[in-house]
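Lecture 7 notes. Example A: sequence first, then its structure tokens.
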Amino acid sequence: GRLPERRPSSSLAKRVYAIMVRLTVDNILGATTYYNPCYERTIDLRGMKIPAIENTGALQDGFDAVDLCDNSIKKLGGFSRLNRLKTLLLSNNRVCRIAPNLAEQLPNLETLVLANNCLEDFADLDGLIGCPIKRLSLVDNKVRTKADYRLYLVHILPSLKLLDFAKVKPKEREAALARFGKLDAAAKKKEAKTFMPGETLPAALRAVPVEALGATQKRTVDQAKAEAIRKLLAEAQTLEELTRIETAIQSDNDAELDALIAAHGLGPALAPAPTATATPNKKDEDEDEDGEGEEEGEKEVKKGEEADMQKDE
């Protein structure tokens, strides 16, 4: 029979194994599937430290529910069109953005759980417009502290029946209509602040320099440095060391990572910081210029006195 896949035994090794695992076709095809208590065919993709949703075409639209809890997903989007999917679980992630075309990707989504994520403003929720969501959980998101939080969600999701495990009451629907008016989905989509790759930037943003938008150059790592990073991860003895290494890897600044590699003897020693050379300031330069001018003036005076003495003789 087929041998089970070998996994690291120690908890530290499991932590190393789990760092930044992409959602690949192999991961999807090898994931556990089961029927949940609602008799929905579910695929278990939780606890894999997945940073982004991708390659979902491998699901072949064969599941009613997808469990992506306990990962590192920052953006809700990136699905291929999944007509069958009705339940999406995304608790304990880092979701702070929702794709504006989510309704096109998941046209029959009815249950969405986004507990313990990073949604802060009403604008972060506008990507849900158009989704036929009936049950929604946003527990432990900062947006729940906003005034009119429930009314706003009732406003943008007309089909919503259960919000944060509490039923939506008719009075809330009336209050949402009085507070926000009738929903104009097309206008809301235009106002959504989420930028999708491939879209054309607005004229106002095209005129702004790239540096002002906070863009960073794509990071590249040579083969020798990549091998040193692998050895560094393998030699880590404590969770604190592993956390420092992970933070350095994810940072845009290579200085900390280079320092860790050099400290473990896996790379060249860092060159000492260049000593600061004294640069004359403007005041000193002005004083030097004044001094040179005085010396030239004294020389001219002496020449004038010698010429007068020669005339007297």
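Example B, a different protein, same format:
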Amino acid sequence: TMVVFGLFLLVASACASSVTLPIHANFTISDALAYLQASADSHHDTIRFDLASGLHRLAQPLRITSAHSSPHRQVVWHGQADTVVTTAFQVPSFTLLDPNKNVWQAVLPSNISAFTDLYRNTTALTRARTPNTGSYFTWKQPYCPDFKTNTTCAQLDRYRLVYRGDDVQESWLSESNAQCVVYHGWTASRHHISDIDTASATMTFSNPADRPIGFWANENSEGGGRYFVENVRGALDQANEWYYDATNYTLLIQLAPGDNPNQDTFFVPQHANIVSLVNATNHAFDSLQFRYANFQCGPTEVCDKQSTSWQTTAGLALENVRDVTVHNCEVAGSGAYGVWINGTSHNVSISGNYIHDLGSGAIRVGSESPSLGVPRLIEISDNTLYRGGLSFPSGTPILIQKAANVTVQHNELSYLPTLVSQSVGAGTLLTQATLTT
């Protein structure tokens, strides 16, 4: 069999049981997908793609479907020690803006899409916030106290809170994308700020919380009435914080004294997924590094539910797949969950991976609605899950919803906001689940 892609010539025996193809500058990941479609009826038992060392930047997330699959052959995607697959944009350089505070500036190209995170060598930096990390404002009272018996009040309170003193600044309304995170009893909601009324000390949001702000008591409750505000210029006052002004494409970072950002690599995500498999069969990922995906929270969207189960994206999204393994890989910098196994997925193994620096949780299985399908025969083992809940504090290290025959064992968890969650939602279907440490 002879197949030509661009400058690269592939020659493989029609009767060979396996074939190994290198992926590099002249034979890209896109070429590999085209090869799979062109060789759908081949007699190979295994097709292995060896990705070359270095950065493989994709303009769009890698999407693998049934067109790239066959129940009669396995496709192996294999990397080297430093093989990175990303859809993110690398910030080319910074210039020093304020030597006294060591604030640096980069003006990004106008075609760069909005982004929710900034990563330095796979570590997520902190979006400029007030108060600083570890401290919080507390709201004074519900905007409409009668929310438990008055449905109009309840609806109003989903969109606003009453703040204390001068905690909130009216000038934040001029920011390009100021957001507020509010802690509740079991969740934390994220909001876009739409109005600040200093006369009534009321901050109003364009998108609501799932329940009225005040449904859970203020002090002496799990939420504690806490909230903080992100992405305001005046909050850029601590090392390893960043701020982005989308109106003029200007990225600012503040670093420790003497630290120079041009000695490292910085990336901003451009998509909400890195890789998605939909209706795919017989794919294995081994020794690859997948990096950087945005979270999504629209200006009218309810960004609030237990274990951030409202989210619909993940760094690696596996939907309605069969016989898929992800082994010895790294998933770094996903704004939502790192890996999500959803739909009718069957016989999926997530093992020996390092999943870290996550906006939400690390691994998710299933969804709230069984109408989307129930994943079965899922193994989650020997993974290292580190540093999550960075954008959504109610993210769960391992979230299992509607699913069956799930085994979770020998995973190491650290610096994540909650413990393993087996199930979320009324009427949860979770059968034959095994969890060990």
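Note on Example B: The chain has two helices and 41 strands. Confidence is low (pLDDT under 50) at residues 1-15, 424-433.
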